[in-house]
Request: fold
Amino acid sequence: MRHIAIVGSGPAGYYTAEAAQKQWGDDVSIDIFDMLPVPYGLIRFGVAPDHQSIKGVTRRYEQTALAENVRFVGNVKVGQDVSVPELQGLYDAVVLATGAPRDREIGVPGDHLKNVFGSAGFVGWYNGHPEFAALDPDLSGHTAVVIGMGNVALDVTRILAKTRDEFAGSDIVGHALDSLMGSKIRRIVVLGRRGPHQIMMTPKELGELGHLSRTAPWVNPRDLPDVGDDAMLEPGIRKAVGHLRSFAAIPESHRADLPLEVEFDFFAAPRGLIGDGKVSAISVERTRIDAGRAVGTGEFYEIPADLVVSCIGYQTSPIAGVPFDERAGRFANDEGRILPGLYCVGWARRGPSGTIGTNRPDGFGVVELIAQDFPASARKAGRAGFDELAERRGLDVVSFDDWKKIEEAEQARARDDAPREKFVDVDDMIRATSLAD
Reply:
């Protein structure tokens, strides 16, 4: 019997568990650890609350989770409650699938000002992550600036722009919904260092922005390349740029009748945040593209900014005793191998790239490495050894059955037009596990 520990219960973690089941069948025991009492990581806390169809992938993960040889070990902080070397002593292989939960810093003067947030925090706030539930952004100002040219920037923009009716069916948490409904923001600027041909936005998400009731997005036609140049683009990006062209063609008279402005500012690099304690403006340098890179032109201007959300990428959180590549923002690894018996997968391996589905071949790939490195069981203590350690340390471990009780309680407390109302406090989650006992 092989014993595998997977640290992280998001897509990469569950795809790795699925791969291990297919590789070894009943001859493997898999423990999936998470620092929170609830599973699914990025799906629960990263995917936009109005994208419920994407969250449906958890049904696949649940099939894996309910197998007898797979166990969810929630509410256990690896690196604090138990160390990675301790897990290595108990399991034949340890796979780090911790994702990339930290924001890349803007790295400009003034980024410490109040009401300046990274997307991990801001998205975590409206998605109910316990670490960010108390973020309380001030939405009383007129202008929000969203920095970034990927789907996360679109998510943040869309969430800021929606009406109450447009949140029907979503699982946005109540405290965020109440705050957004009281928002005074009337202008959202989406800021990107490069141009329309360099966006990382997908057609579906851009298309959604064009169907909101309070706004009609605007792109300055001068920022668009010649339409003939679109032929060189990959089909998905070409379609996305087509949406930008349609935004540029919306008559100003139509936009003027709507209560919220959303505008894309391309070829614009943030150089500093301005304010007295709290952000009030952002200093921007006009850029041009040189060999695919954005270079400054020396032309500066300011944009009023009462709220700034930076959506420029994520980094993995280091864990004590695990080699880390600071520059890349992920664990130092060779195609998934970190140290003998220690592996990484997903964003923790390759950085924040690809879609949720990209993690599936990643998980299968790391299991192939484990099979090569451990052709026969090393017969370590595995699950029984961890249970003994957990009892010795008094760890309050949450099982998958416990999670299902949390899920039932969240569904029971949902708004009429929502699938659930998430608990945003770990203690409340733990209490919910005993409600049905």
In short: The chain has two domains: 2-101+316-398, 103-314. The mean pLDDT is 95. The domain at 103-314 is CATH 3.50.50.60 (FAD/NAD(P)-binding domain).
